[in-house]
Amino acid sequence: MNVVGKAAFGARSSARRILGHVLRERAAPSRRLLGTDAVVATAAAAPVVAAAAASLKSARPAVGETKTPPARRELLPIKMPMTTNGVKAFFVDTPAGVSDVVGRLSAVTRDDCLYVDLEGVDLSRYGTVSLLIIYCPTARQIFVLDVFMLQAAAFDTQGPDDSGLSIRGILESKEYCKAFFDVRNDSDALFHHYGVGLRNVEDLQLMENATRPDGQRNIINGLAKSMGWRGILSKAERAQWDRCKTAGKAMFNPATGGSFDVFNARPLDPAILSYCVGDVYYLPRLRKRHWGSLSQAWRLKVQKATQARVLESQQKDFDPHSIDKIRSPWEDPLDWVPLNEYKAPVGSHAYRAPTQKRHKL
């Protein structure tokens, strides 16, 4: 054995002795019984263990060395006032985090539904995508993906297994059901910025419109008004939901001195996070309330109208800010109202009801 080999052998032997001593100390019965002593002993031994491990690493030959990949960082939940019943929300801003999300969503079955929403600056082909929010009720988890920072990595990062699945694959898959509230601008932005073609989509806005009585389907409702249906939210839930929505809108609504740029500010303001979570948290109740009350014929109508919305949003002549977007696909001539009596601010679903209805002659 040459001089270098002897030195390496000596270093390895010394390191092993130190590690063995530390392990015996940590395994002692007195340490197991006294929690405080065990913590102190472990903390005191940490530098020794680190030095021993470093010694072992430096003593190994570099040729043919096999490195173990670093452990995947666990997603940490963020505190959200909207979430209850064990639902956790996560802010995801790294490719490793996206991979973790894909792994968690891959367990969703055909009987489950994912609830999806996007936020951005002028969310459309003309603006930007800032955030992608996905709620998985079966897993009781909400994921807020930072598309502004991740860009294409938010959609194309694959999961931890070898299936090749990604967020893009989930959004474009026939196997995964995705529910949106008014899918049009979301689809427009996804398709024209990232080439994502949505499939197997449900539109809760159309469901709500379809459940109205005859003669009352002319104008579609925004999310806030749709949440006003009896039995969807309790008074306390509605009050909390309104507080989160009001605080978020105050930050991005230009009419109140805000700016849509807050969706791209980092770190993201907690009020904006709460606003995003609130947009998806109660959507399962909305779906349950309306889908269950539709006849089979109306369900087919909703499905066809939803597919038409997705296809329309991908066309060159689609106008994401058209006033005609507030028209229902099942416009009833007996409930016709001139569009100039309605206000539809860009980026808002808060439509003002007319003071008087007018009918076609």
Q: Quick check: average pLDDT?
A: 79
The number of E-state strands comes to 7
Q: What is the H/E order?
A: HHHEEHEEEHHHEHEHHHHHH
Q: Note the overall shape.
A: globular
| Radius of gyration, in angstroms, nearest whole number | 27 Å
Determine the strand fraction and express it as a percent band.
Answer: 5-15%
User: Which percent range fits the helix content?
Assistant: 40-55%
Strand order of the largest sheet: 1-2-5-4-3-6-7
- Regarding quaternary structure, what we see is single chain
Poorly predicted residue ranges? 2-13, 21-72, 342-361
Task: Look at the structure and give the CATH class of the largest domain.
Answer: Alpha Beta
Secondary structure category: alpha/beta
CATH superfamily of the largest domain: Ribonuclease H-like superfamily/Ribonuclease H
Query: End-to-end span in angstroms?
Result: 105 Å
Total of helices:
14
Q: Based on the coordinates given, report the CATH architecture of the largest domain.
A: 2-Layer Sandwich
> How many separate domains make up the residues?
2
CATH topology call of the largest domain: Nucleotidyltransferase, domain 5
Largest sheet: 7 strands, mixed
